[in-house]
Every structure is written in C-alpha cells, then in structure tokens.
Amino acid sequence: MCSSSRPDALSRLTAALDDLAIEDLSGQFGPQLLEGLRDLLAAQNRLAAQLTRRVRECEVTQAPEHDGLKTMQSWLRGHGRLSPPAAARLVRCGRALTQLPAVEEAFGRGAVTAEQVAAIAPVARAENVAAAATQGVDLSGVDAALAEVAATRPYDELRQVVHHYLERLDPDGPEPDPTEGRSLVWSRHADGAVSGRFDLDAVGGEKFLTAIESILQAGRCAGDDRTRAQQQADALVQLADNALASGGLPIMRTVKPHVVAMINVEDLIDPATGPGAARTGFGAVVSAARARWLACDGTVSRVVMGPDGEVLDYGRARRIVPPGLRRAVEVQQRHCVFAGCGAPTHWCDVHHVLEWVLDEGPTSLDNSALLCERHHTKVHHGFRIERDPIGRWHTYRPDGTEILPPAPLPQVADEPNTVWDLDPRDVALAGHTSGAVP
Asked: Where are the alpha helices (DSSP H) in 279-322?
C-alpha cells in the first residue's frame, strides 16, 4: 500500500516544475540567472537522491516482479527508457548508499551530485568493505571524509581520493584483471550514425591512444582544417579500415569480416545522390552515392528478388579491383593522390576515376586512383581528380578551381657538381631529363 503523502508530495513537485517552466527568464540578468541556476542544481541533486533511494527500495522489495521483470535494471531500461549503463549506475549507487550514510545525507540535501555518488560507490563494494574491516579501517570515518571532499572539492580530486583509498586497501594484493573494468557501448541513430562511450584500464587506454595518435600524425597534410576531435574520429575509422584490409581479423560465419551495403540496381546506376537508398549489414541506411563509394574497391554480387521477397537468382560475386591490379596501382602511385595528402597505400581504396557503374569506366591501371578514406568521400561528394597526359594528378574543388599544393623544395647534394633532387614528374613537366645545374 502506498503512503497517502506520496501523491501529494509528487503533485506539489509537479506543480513547482510547472511554475518553473512558465517563468520568464528574458528579463533576468546574470546574477539572478546564476543564483537560480545554483538552486536548480541543488534541487536536481536532491531529486536524484530521492530517485536513487526509491530505486534501492524497489530492488529490496523486488518491485519489478509486479511488471513481470526480474531486475531493477531491466525495469529502468524498459519503463524508464534509461540506457543500460545509466540503469546499472543508478542501481549501484542505491546499493552503495546503504553503507555510506554521510554521503547519502549530503546527497539528500543537494550538496553532492549523482555523478559524485557513482564515483564513491566502489568504496561500498562487498570486497572493499571486507578488506576495510580486516585492516581495522573505520568505514564511518571514510564515509564522512568522502562526503566532505565531494561537497567541497572538484570532481577530479574526489576520484583521486577514492582511487588512493582503494589502492591502500590492498597495496600488496594481486594485480587486478585489466579486462574487468573495460566496457564499450554504442547506439545507432535514425540516420545510421553511431555514438557511444568506452572505459579502458590504464594500459589498454595507452595502447588505444598510441594507435590513434600514430594514425593521426601520419595523416596530417597541408590545409587540414579538421578539429582535433574530427581528426581522432577519422583516425579511429582508419584503424578499423586497416584491420579489415589486413585480412587478419577472425572469420565470421565462414567469410572474412567485411562491410556490406545492399542497394537496388536502379539506384546504383542512377547518378543522383539517392538518400536512403542502401542498407548496411548492421542496419544503417545510407545514400546511393555512399554505396557507390563503397563499391569502388569492393566486391559486387547480383541478387534477383521476387515480388514476395524470395531470392530468384543470384550471380557470382565480382571483384571490382583484383589484387594484381591493386598492387600495380600501389607501385605506380605510392600514396593518396588527392592534392596535399600523402596517406600511405594501405590506408587507401582504389577509386575508379570514371565510375564503373555510372560512366562504364574500365577497371584498369589508367582509370585507377589511390584515395584515402577521407578524400575518397570528398571525390564522391563534389571534388574531382584527374590525371594529365604526363601522369601528374590534379585535384579540383566542386566549383571547378584547382587545389594547388605547395611545390616541394629542391634539396642540394654534397657532391662537388651540385645536382637538384627533383621529382621526375616535375622534370618531365619542365621538358628536361635531368636536373643538373651548371
């Protein structure tokens, strides 16, 4: 039976929120706005404390069974529409506060945030409470100290204090398994984009940062106006590209892992962008232009479907760029041919200069160009590359103007007869066969 005061308290809270929603903020100045914001932050903390308390009580009384669910986490995901990490964090905090009354009191009066409680929660794990009891540690004193730190010091300092305490509980114990604290979660949005978060241990994080930074630094080129965040995201995609291209990833159901894009042949041969025309293996919907980009250096299979969705016929998979041709292109071009970029061959796709679908471009050495993932995208969205009669590549913006990278500086050798070290293509452009200087 619910307490009769509960509906009244919640109705008053709802009414107060309604009043806040119609409050006119346009006439308030900085000091007024900031003072109100401080009060709202404290109120948010207090509300989070009550939410955490109720979640704990629901777990203790097995309330989710009333709605046919086994755990409080599953109820929060289904009925509260929380993400799995948020639901798990809320349940953990509720359990932890039973061991930490001082932190719970500070949380209840709004002095401590839900995020701070989550940072403190590991202190109340059963193994850590047992270790504290074995060593004669006064947990109530630790509780009070952490509540004080949380209420008065920055979040990062609180995390350091908690980490230091946990380390001192078992200074000579076995090294923890680094995989226990690792997690990676993501969600796919309606447009197929992916977002998420991850947690890595110190060594795992160092490996990840080293790999990303190496690709990021190697991919820097003149005129790069991407933000640091964009560069890191591109490096992560390139890391996945490299792993997929290497052929060393585990086999998935008898085939090597690969990116799949399914598209109707009418959309594939239509030169229009065709938004929402193709679907990937993991369910994302992409444009026909993006599917044609993927097909530049991929394998194409024909599947004929009946009116009821049954497969009537399927043709052999056709490799657009065979391995031998790719090796020849890599030897000839050595890196991404987009102006100002020098991405290495193993980062690059083989692009058909004349598209093999739209323009019936041949799969040949003369019609192939190495392009890194970023610039392959550019070429399929307005930019253009072409090779002149002497084999030199040119890059053009969507408005038709050419991108002209800075000319390389000649280097002088130390021999008595000085010779300029010129690019052979520069020599051919100048109409000479050597760069000797009298």
From this structure: 288-295
